[in-house]
Amino acid sequence: MLSIASLGKKTKKSTISPYRDRVYIIKDIILKLVDYGALNQTSLISFCGLNLKKHRSILFELELNELVTKSETTSGHRTITVYKPTQKGIEFCNKIIGPYEKMFPRQRHQQRSEDIKPIVIENSQEYHGNSNSVNDDQKCFTEIGQPTMVTLKEISPTR
Questions:
Q1: CA–CA separation, 67 vs 151, rounded Å?
Q2: Which class does domain 22-103 fall in?
Q3: Which of 91, 36, 101 is nearest to 67 (CA)?
Q4: pLDDT value at 109 more than 90
Q5: Does residue 18 have a cis bond before it (omega within 30 degrees)?
């Protein structure tokens, strides 16, 4: 039952949105600017899926570090802010962020853990010549493929 105090209050729906690292936000901004050449602030924020209040500091830092340029033009009483990529920003994206993303790819938060089936992969090959050798009665587990969750189980030697 609703009370008088609760009337007029908006109920907040909880939506789970995936977290995006700052590095990937920067890459998305630079790539959108490269794709379109130049974008006004509203379009850039919208195309990158950002919130201007939360992410204005990132745009400021990109401009401060000369990775993007910002130009403001006045049209009547409105000020239009346009962002463009710089050569330094494009090189930064290609030389630093690109290899970073190859090494640490973005996580797929949309995929639920129930969809990932546990797989146990056993490798019972013998290794000789070093102190870390694996005997026939021991098993070595490895992970193969993505997305794979490897389940490790205890194996006691049979003697």
A1: 44
A2: mainly alpha
A3: 91
A4: no
A5: no
